[in-house]
């Protein structure tokens, strides 16, 4: 770690012995050998969100105990942090000096990048990723990010989500491949348990159809 100037130190032997049983339990829970690695790093849990989300680390008092075999997550976190800092500094220098000097050559290209989108194109149908309502619970357990899994749990619990939650979760399901008719079936099955089918059709179905470009400006 010191060779690459990473701010992490190995867990002292005394502290390792104190949590060894907990580390062994985590190893068994993710299908690894019960024999625990001897080198661990104690880091703030927010620095390894991928390991926390997949429950692959022991957590205690806001810290995650990261094994040497998992250290790539720490490296990735530091890399992203360094890139973010470098981009901020570059932006300041760009705004202060370079932007005006390169107004005819680089400026139009750089400013266009801020409006570019390089993610998946959800405006076009993709049959390969089509899902149905019966797939949602299984996909939530295996593939959903934690925030979306939490929304589904709240929806199942309360049979309702506020407008912002419905928009966010609804568009997420659309991007995952849920068709309009299936989306209406899914939302109706939950909301009707609290507000009834008639009220759902009057007050909530419109926004779902709107998400799919069937209402309003009809833009998918």
From TrEMBL:
Q: InterPro entries under this entry?
A: DNA_primase_C, DNA_primase_lsu_euk/arc
Q: Short name of one Pfam family for this protein?
A: DNA_primase_lrg
What cofactors does the UniProt entry give for this protein?
A: [4Fe-4S] cluster
Query: Which residues are listed as membrane-spanning?
Result: none
Asked if the record carries the keyword Zinc, the reply is no
Metal-binding recorded as keyword? yes
Q: Spell out the molecular function terms from Gene Ontology.
A: 4 iron, 4 sulfur cluster binding; metal ion binding
Q: Which GO terms describe its cellular component?
A: alpha DNA polymerase:primase complex
Which keywords annotate this record? 4Fe-4S, DNA replication, Iron, Iron-sulfur, Metal-binding, Primosome
Protein's GO biological process? DNA replication initiation; DNA replication, synthesis of primer
> Any idea where the DNA primase large subunit C-terminal domain is?
137-219
Protein name from the UniProt record: DNA primase large subunit C-terminal domain-containing protein
Native organism is Aegilops tauschii subsp. strangulata (Goatgrass)
């Amino acid at each position: 770690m010191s060779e690459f100037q990473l701010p992490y130190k190995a867990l002292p032997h005394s502290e390792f012995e104190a949590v060894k049983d907990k580390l062994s339990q985590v190893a068994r829970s993710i299908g690894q050998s019960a024999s625990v690695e001897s080198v661990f790093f104690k880091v703030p849990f927010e620095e390894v969100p991928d390991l926390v989300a997949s429950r692959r680390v022991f957590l205690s008092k806001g810290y995650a105990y990261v094994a040497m075999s998992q250290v790539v997550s720490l490296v990735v976190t530091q890399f992203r942090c360094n890139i973010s800092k470098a981009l901020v500094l570059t932006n300041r220098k760009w705004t202060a000096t370079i932007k005006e000097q390169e107004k005819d050559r680089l400026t139009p290209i750089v400013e266009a990048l801020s409006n570019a989108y390089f993610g998946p194109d959800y405006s076009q149908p993709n049959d390969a990723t089509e899902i149905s309502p019966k797939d949602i619970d299984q996909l939530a357990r295996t593939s959903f990010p934690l925030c979306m899994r939490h929304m589904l749990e709240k929806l199942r619990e309360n049979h309702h989500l506020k407008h912002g939650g419905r928009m966010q979760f609804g568009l997420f399901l659309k991007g995952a491949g849920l068709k309009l008719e299936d989306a209406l079936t899914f939302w109706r099955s939950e909301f009707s348990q609290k507000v009834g089918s008639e009220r759902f059709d009057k007050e909530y179905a419109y926004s779902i159809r709107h998400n799919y470009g069937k209402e309003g400006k009809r833009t998918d």
